[in-house]
Amino acid sequence: AECLLSDVVVVGVQQQSSADGDAVNAALGPMFAFVLESMVMDVYSSVKAITDPGVHSYVKSLVNGPDIEAAYVAWLEFMDVVNANQVATEAASFASTPGTATIGEATKKHSAESYPFLNDVDWLSSIYLKLLPGAAVGKTPKAVDKATVMGSAMDRDLPKAAAEAHHKASCSIDANGVTSAADYEAVNAALGRAVASVPKSIVMDVYDAFAGIVDSSIPNNICSSVDPLNAHAATIFVYDLKVVVQASLQ
Q: What phi and psi, each to the nearest 5 degrees, are found at residue 249?
């Protein structure tokens, strides 16, 4: 995340430096090597399935041909090195979860109260595939980077637990794009514990960054399409969970 931060500060101003590019690649390589090859290939296959075959040719048409060919060769060589150092088994976990019981109790109660709102939202709408309206190109990557920095500051097992909760939730999604109530609760609990493991200042950096790129009309637009009582219940849930998480913040 620190490498990406150094990289992102120049977005929209100038080209990424060679040193920052090297640092990002050097940081990503060990991360990929730390997980099973089958998991890496699952990501590759999933992204490939939703990527139009014409994308590669289009991107290539925008840059110098020999440069992109050289980059592709370098990437294949880099992939070989990572593959040669890939772990054979999953890493062991280390329990380090602040406020487990308190956050779990809060999410159990309020997830049930906000679940009707989740069902009201039209998750099949194409609006979720579009860019944020009015978001400046230079600000958006910087906001994402604040979230990346927060992720790197979390206790190491908590992002993994949150990712596993999201994976499980994705497996129970119904025809309307809604996960099960139990999996929804598990996701909220995992996220609450993950956020509670970092300093409040880092959490607020993420909030402020995204507040700066999300138009104030967006929440109102979403709420206008659902039952207002359910939306209100969901809002209360967020505020109540915030209080519990804040009490557990480092």
A: -60, 145
How many CA within 13 A on the CB side of residue 179?
18
Query: 188, 165 in Cβ contact below 8 A?
Result: no
Q: What is the mean pLDDT of residues 179-205?
A: 91
Span 90-110, pLDDT tens digits: 655 444 444 567 788 878 888
CA 4 to chain centroid, in Å, comes to: 15
pLDDT at 220: 83
Q: What single-letter amino acid sits at 9? A: V
CA distance 200 to 180: 30
Looking at residue 127, the DSSP 8-state letter turns out to be: G
Q: How confident is the model over 137-147, as a mean pLDDT?
A: 87
Q: For residues 136 and 106, give the distance between their C-alpha atoms in angstroms, rounded to a whole number.
A: 36
Q: Which is nearest to 148 in space by CA: 90, 99, 91, 210?
A: 210
Spatial CA neighbour of 187 closest among 114, 236, 135, 96: 114
Structure tokens at 103: 């956050």
SS3 (DSSP) at 197: coil
CA distances to 8, 31, 117 from 235, rounded to whole Å, are: 32, 36, 10
Instruction: Report the predicted TM-score, pTM, of the whole model to 2 decimal places.
Output: 0.68
Q: What confidence score (pLDDT) does residue 85 get?
A: 79
User: What per-residue confidence (pLDDT) applies to 217?
Assistant: 84
Cβ(149)–Cβ(1) below 8 Å: yes
d(C-alpha 113, C-alpha 181), whole Å? 10
Asked if 215 and 134 touch (Cβ cutoff 8 Å), the reply is: yes
